[in-house]
């Protein structure tokens, strides 16, 4: 039976910046539109956190029963390592996704934007079918697109809209930037897993692009947010604060660009996540000012 520590590790806490950053950036854009609300911001954050924990457990379960995680290089996988029964991990995934659904329903009810229920349903289905079902889209090279949409566009713009009732170019810029960061995290992860994914038949975008193409994609993705910072400076010069986070990526860029393999790429996931969170916080402060 898995210990509490193993369950926490199985939830992949290093991916939590992917859930926090879009809400933080969205809050900053909402403040700029005079639409900030503490209750709605907190609910949006809880929905995002529940969703990412749910998708992490769902991926653990689906990859585990397929045997994809048997030779995985990265952090602990509950099913793949055999420390937890598949049904227990499935139950954890369903509880987390169910909580995201309930909290999302409360948020929609408070905002009165009932049409957002459809977007919430798509997010939950997207979380499950990333690696779940007979033909998971994550196994066919669409994972990066989904992350960009769900943890970039939907996460940021949804946070803004449920508070301000409108969007802005600054909000869209933040959505593109956070989505690029978040996709960069997944790209670094899939770059590390190219050998084992090919062996298990998992055709991620990284396996399709190959080692060199995936490295170029990562470097492009982590550059996009800093281009956005420069563009946001036309809204407020304080947006250039986002550039302060660039040094956090130096080791990651060096590792990915220098041809690092396997476990040597694990810090790139962490550092990209931290850079994303830092960028979101500083950009939110800039927009709020």
From TrEMBL:
GO terms for molecular function: 1,4-dihydroxy-2-naphthoate polyprenyltransferase activity. The lineage of its organism: Bacteria, Bacillati, Actinomycetota, Actinomycetes, Pseudonocardiales. The keyword Transmembrane applies. Pathway: Quinol/quinone metabolism; menaquinone biosynthesis; menaquinol from 1,4-dihydroxy-2-naphthoate: step 1/2. Belongs to the MenA family. Type 1 subfamily. Keywords: Cell membrane, Membrane, Menaquinone biosynthesis, Transferase, Transmembrane, Transmembrane helix. Gene3D superfamilies: UbiA prenyltransferase. It is a multi-pass membrane protein. The chain crosses the membrane at residues 41-58, 88-107, 113-130, 137-161, 167-188, 217-244. Pfam families: UbiA (PF01040). GO terms for biological process: menaquinone biosynthetic process; vitamin K biosynthetic process. This is 1,4-dihydroxy-2-naphthoate octaprenyltransferase. Its main location: membrane. It is found in: Cell membrane; Membrane.
């Amino acid at each position: 039976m898995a210990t509490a520590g193993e369950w926490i590790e199985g939830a992949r806490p290093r991916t939590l910046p992917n859930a926090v950053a879009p809400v933080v950036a969205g809050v900053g854009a909402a403040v700029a539109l005079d639409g900030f609300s503490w209750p709605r911001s907190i609910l949006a954050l809880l929905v995002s956190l529940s969703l990412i924990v749910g998708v992490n457990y769902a991926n653990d379960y689906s990859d585990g029963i397929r045997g994809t995680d048997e030779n995985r290089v990265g952090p602990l996988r509950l099913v793949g390592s055999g420390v937890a029964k598949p049904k227990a991990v499935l139950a954890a995934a369903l509880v987390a996704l169910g909580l995201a659904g309930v909290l999302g329903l409360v948020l929609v009810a408070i905002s009165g934007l009932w049409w957002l229920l459809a977007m919430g349903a798509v997010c939950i289905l997207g979380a499950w079918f990333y690696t779940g079902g007979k033909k998971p889209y994550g196994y066919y090279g669409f994972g990066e697109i989904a992350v960009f949409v769900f943890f970039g566009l939907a996460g940021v713009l949804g946070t803004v809209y449920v508070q301000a009732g409108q969007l802005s170019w600054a909000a869209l810029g933040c959505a593109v930037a956070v989505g690029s960061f978040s996709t960069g995290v997944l790209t670094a992860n899939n770059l590390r897993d190219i050998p084992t994914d090919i062996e298990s038949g998992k055709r991620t975008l990284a396996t399709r692009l190959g080692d060199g193409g995936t490295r170029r994609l990562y470097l492009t993705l982590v550059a996009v947010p800093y281009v956005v910072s420069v563009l946001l400076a036309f809204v407020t010069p304080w947006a250039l604060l986002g550039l302060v986070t660039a040094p956090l990526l130096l080791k990651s860029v060096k590792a990915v660009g220098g041809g690092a393999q396997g476990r040597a790429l694990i810090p790139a996931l962490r550092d990209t996540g931290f850079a994303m969170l830092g960028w979101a916080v500083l950009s939110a402060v800039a927009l709020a000012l």
